[in-house]
Amino acid sequence: MKLLILPCLIALASCSSGPGPVIPENRTERQMLGLLEKFDRWDHDGNGELDVKELDHGIKGLKGKPQQVNYTGKKVVDFYDADRNGTVSLREAQAGYRRADEVGKQLQ
């Protein structure tokens, strides 16, 4: 039965044209879209969570950009990893935005 469900879901997904482009209306929405983009780009194993190795690799790609990046994947995991499983899920990262004032202090 499960084998039949997957092809049906794939067929339905390919028929859907989707809602179109998403245009952020404020800074928070832009940050959330940036977060989704980073998760998609940095989640090399596709498990939906970022580990220290994936974060270090992604952060290394930010070095030399206009903003100073002086934190490590371990610091990011230590700050955002609410369930302490050694990875950062998208939900944990989103919840971290609520603590944005702490980020600058703890990640540096």
Give the helix/strand layout.
Layout lengths: L1 H14 L11 H16 L6 E3 H11 L10 H8 L6 E3 H8 L2 H7 L2
Helix pairs in contact: 3-4
What does this structure look like?
The chain has a two-stranded antiparallel sheet with strand order 1-2. The chain has 108 residues and is mainly alpha-helical. The protein has six helices and two strands, in the order H-H-E-H-H-E-H-H. It is 59% helix and 6% strand. It starts with a helix and ends with a helix. The radius of gyration is 17 Å and the shape is globular. The chain has helices spanning 2-15, 27-42, 52-62, 73-80, 90-97, 100-106, and strands at 49-51, 87-89.
Strand residue percentage? 5-15%
Number of strands: 2
The strands making up the biggest β-sheet line up spatially as 1-2
Order of helices and strands: HHEHHEHH
Number of individual domains: 1
Give average pLDDT, whole number: 74
Low-pLDDT runs of 5+ residues are 6-16
CATH topology: Recoverin, domain 1
Distance between the terminal alpha carbons, to the nearest Å? Answer: 51 Å
Biggest β-sheet, characterized? 2 strands, antiparallel
CATH architecture: Orthogonal Bundle
Q: Pairing-aware structural class of the strands and helices?
A: mainly alpha
- Please estimate the helix content: 55-70%
Write down the overall geometry: globular
CATH homologous superfamily grouping = EF-hand
Rg value: 17 Å
Tell me the name of the CATH class. Mainly Alpha
**Helix count, per DSSP?**
6
Q: Short description, anyone?
A:
With 108 residues, the protein is mostly helical. It has helices at residues 2-15, 27-42, 52-62, 73-80, 90-97, 100-106; strands spanning 49-51, 87-89.
